[in-house]
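Quick one:
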Amino acid sequence: MNMEVHNWGLQVGNVQIDAITSSSVFLVGDSEEIILSSFFDTPPEATMIGTIVPLSG
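Output:
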């Protein structure tokens, strides 16, 4: 995706961040390039392959 934004005369007085997630970007100012990436970090032993039997309550 190519996106071009012009914020001429941008002024930031106050910023309050209440929460962030694992895929957050907070940027004030200029940036020529932002490279985003992601990965799946669950260890192989936590992956269940096959039939999953539900627990009875």
